Amino acid sequence: MLDIKSLSVDELKNALKEIGEKPFRAAQLYDWMHNKRVGSITEMSNISKELKQKLQQQFSFVSLKLLLEQVSKEDDTKKFLFELPDGNTVETVWMKYKHGNSVCISSQVGCRMGCKFCASTLGGLVRSLQAGEMLEQIYEVMRITGERVDNIVVMGIGEPFDNYDNLLRFIRRLTEEGGYHLSARSITVSTCGIVENIKRFAAEGLPITLALSLHATTDEKRKEIMPIAFKYSLAQLEEAMGYYFEQTGRRITLEYALIGGVNDTEEEANQLASIAYKLHAHVNLIPVNPVKERGFTQPEKERILAFQSRLKKKGAKATIRREMGRDIDGACGQLRRKQAIEGVL
Prior knowledge:
By secondary structure, this protein is α/β, with parallel strands linked by helices. It has helices at residues 9-18, 25-34, 49-58, 131-145, 164-175, 195-202, 219-225, 234-248, 266-279, 301-313, 338-342; strands at 2-3, 59-60, 65-71, 78-83, 89-97, 100-105, 108-110, 125-128, 151-154, 187-191, 209-213, 253-258, 282-287, 317-320.
């Protein structure tokens, strides 16, 4: 069945015409779904019983079931395990910052990219999420917390550009007038580097912040930890990211997971600074987070600070990410299909 939450107002008008309903109802439905954010069709009070029945018969109206909520003792970050309509699960993270509330959402059930430091790839890819399932993670978190979301990060389970069409629908619905109307500048999309879709995304006219999961400064090293590097070289990535910057004017973020004894040398800092300079990019250093199935560890704190200092000396802008929710496995690289893999419930 068609995911009604993924439809634009114009698409809703056409869909309503096909079932014998007046097109003006489209704006009402859109408002109920994306502005009032009701949890079901039955909650739409100014919609007739007959139309509600038609909608329930013709469309899917995504709702999520909360299976588990965890709260960090370190920083009050919250992680939610949601069950999708087909029984699969995803994890979503709520983070409070001085500049506003952020939600990190998942774009797929599992992931097929195979990055060796990431828990999300364990078990592989099951399926991609529909736009409505991505939106509903945000809407459900707001229902639970009672607070507005100011920033969205598509950096949870899955590779967003491996689910390109649904990702784009999700962003369009989230930013359009008449609904939640979030600024596109408040959205960050992370990718491990699917070159053709980086270029497609650049042409969409959306001022989204793009974050590239780089994690190594040579093709050889990147291949050791990121299988995607066998398909796309660093030269191809640099060209695609440069194109994105030219088309959008948005500064790129280079995500770099610092792994002790793997990618944390002074030479690698020099090479990373050179890449950042060429791309006008900001470097986000992420001391690798613990994943029990992986053997990677963080460098010592002094080595992390020395790596950052070296980047700055070479002219690169670099920050060390404050990892939120590490004690509940809610930080970067720690999200997973926990129910399916570990049977925690």
